[in-house]
Design brief:
Elements lengths: L7 E3 L6 H4 L7 E2 L3 E3 L5 E3 L3 E6 L3 E5 L12 E9 L3 E5 L6 E8 L15 E8 L6 E5 L18 E3 L3 E4 L2 H6 L6 H7 L5 E5 L3 E5 L3 H14 L4 H23 L1
Parallel strand pairs: 2-6, 9-11
Antiparallel strand pairs: 1-5, 3-4, 5-6, 7-8, 7-10, 8-9, 10-11, 10-12, 13-15, 14-15
Length: about 250
């Protein structure tokens, strides 16, 4: 991190030109920033101005309104089926389209048959200003590619389990390997999780009761310290063990 940059709180309309050009003149602006005439860089939403070397800036805000970005992994719900694609709600400002052949190993004769209400885990393939966002369930070139029919592909339909909506910051934290609440939960119980950068996550533990407990623990952890998170998960695990013991007697 460049020592000349300091994360600062910004509001819509704030001029951040001096801050963003202090480290470099070649800029890559992300969500929450726009460049006007005369090279002025302005904030378009409230949040914290962030910087990633060598030249990326964006405004990080704890909201629920999602703005799609290419390569983001997202959860979406199928709302309609068209001739060669599905209309998917990714809880953003506009609808998204998922092609019927946008699955690893899919062909015209062999492809998933999604229905209205199906939950899919996918990634953003293209973002067009005046058109629908394009989605895909194919793995990236450096990812593990497994045919959709195996049920082991990275992206695709998610069956069973429970999906929850949350803040964008919480869903982003769930994608990090050092996420405290996930590491703490994993010590006590097995579960599957898919986290979308659009303020969504899905959990399946094989037990409806355990899945609900895990979802609630994740949601509660957002306002807790690491120590509080660990203590909360420990208490939940003890309660679940007592419940299982009572059922066996």
């Amino acid at each position: 991190m460049d020592p000349r940059f300091k994360a600062t709180v910004v509001l819509p309309g704030d001029d951040v030109t001096e801050t963003t050009t202090r480290t470099t003149r070649s800029l890559r602006l992300g969500p929450g920033l726009v460049q006007h005439a005369q090279d002025k860089v302005m904030a378009t939403r409230a949040g914290v101005l962030r910087y990633r070397p060598p030249c990326s800036y964006w405004v990080e805000s704890n909201g629920r309104r999602y703005g799609a970005r290419v390569e983001d992994q997202v959860l979406g719900i199928v709302e309609d089926r068209m001739a060669d694609s599905y209309k998917v709600n990714i809880f953003g400002s506009c609808a998204a389209l998922l092609g019927m052949l946008e699955f690893d190993g899919a062909s015209k004769r062999s492809k998933p048959n999604l229905r209205t209400g199906s939950l899919v885990f996918c990634r953003v393939a293209a973002v067009n200003k005046d058109m629908e966002t394009e989605l895909t369930c194919t793995s990236t070139h450096h990812g593990s590619k497994k045919d959709w029919m195996t049920g082991q592909s990275t992206f695709g339909e998610l069956r069973g389990g429970k999906m929850e909506r949350c803040s964008l910051l919480l869903s982003k934290s769930l994608t990090k390997p050092d996420c405290r609440v996930l590491k703490s939960l994993a010590k006590h119980m097995p579960f599957e999780l898919a986290a979308g950068l659009n303020g969504t996550f899905w959990v399946d533990s094989g037990s409806e009761a355990h899945t609900i407990v895990i979802c609630n623990a994740i949601l509660n952890s957002e306002v807790m310290t690491d120590a509080q998170t660990d203590a909360m998960v420990d208490r939940l695990a003890k309660h679940m063990k007592k419940g299982l013991a009572a059922m066996d007697t």
